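re: ur question from yesterday

yeah so i grabbed the chain u mentioned. its 398 aa long if i counted rite. heres the sequnce exactly as i have it in my notes:
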Amino acid sequence: RKQAAVDALRMDVDCCSPPEGTNTHAIKKYCCEETVTQDIMDSPDRHNENNVAEFSSRGPTFDGRIKPDILAPGQFIISAHSDGNPTSFQCGTSPPKLDNDAGRLSNAGTSMATPTAAGAAVLVRQYYKDGFYPSGQKESTDGFNPSGALVKATMIASTYELQGEIDKGNNGTWSKIDPIWPKYSIFQGFGNLRLGNALYFGGEKQLDVYDVVDGLETNSSTTYCVEATSSEPIRAVLVYDDYPGTPGAELATVNDLDLVGGVDDATKVTGNFKDRRDYRNTAEHVIIDNAKNGQRVYFVVRARQVPQGPQAYALAISGKFNKISDQKSCNFQWTDNFELARDTDFFPYGQVAGTSVAMVILMAVVAMVVKYMPVSYTHLRAHETCADLVCRVLLEKK
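ran it thru and got these structure tokens back, copy pasting raw so excuse formatting
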């Protein structure tokens, strides 16, 4: 339907009065300015910052890992428009067509949300590189090169929960979005991006981060703590770049780090599922909402299984607290009695097609390619997988 609207733009037809023989309904719906405006006015609750767009991708992955990680605005985004000529420097104000001089274009989709998230990642990196951490003021002597894990952990620590609605079944029936805690949401992941929730530039809210290069081996752990200055929730995010998994494995992750947090053993929680241990994801968060002013809040990063180690990681803590200068004093006595997370935790809306199905599809593609290509192309080269062979053949035949 949307392609019909794009085709209408390409044909330069009147989108509000499309000619016979075209998909008039789709062209009016997605191309006619009056219709689009009226749709927004008629359904204001469907197009606001608390909802997730019905076309937004959902998780989880085949093996149950969290996706999406975060959300970013991607609907009714106004950005620069190009006529394809790098020397025209167009800045027109007319409604944009594919090759006219309009200076701006409104669009929706991953192509709008991804640049927003990428730009946010650059700002996070600049925050650390320019030395804004930990004082909140630019101090070049404090600057350092953050790991990708720390950038991601900081971005997740900045997110907030969308509490609106989504068309879960893409059938026109809207319902409340699943929350991000005490389970994760396959619709919003860890929440919607807002860097101001995490980056510290002064004020009551703090950011405490650890970019640990040396990492952990199996059964080792490190404890961190802060002192709450209010009763507001304190959030911690653990992220690590895992060792490469085996292609086609039922579970892609190799090393398993856990995050535990709390003020005492009785009320401790663990990453993503609160009272059940997540053994699939390389990003975990906990939200501590029972700390009182002046009370210490502890966070433990534990290496459950690290067959390929040591495993480096990053930890980001955000909220209203005082930092503890002597982290060696963070002695948290806790009992490791968490149950394993269940399949229903990872697949809240049912199992998705697994890697075995994906491999069947891949092999079917391989068979088709091999059947219709010259014999000379069918030989695998050294260290070449079947997937590599398919890609090479398609490129060579092209």
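noticed a couple things. The helical segments are 2-11, 24-31, 33-42, 110-129, 148-157, 343-346, 355-371, 386-397. also Confidence is low (pLDDT under 50) at residues 374-387.
anyway ttyl
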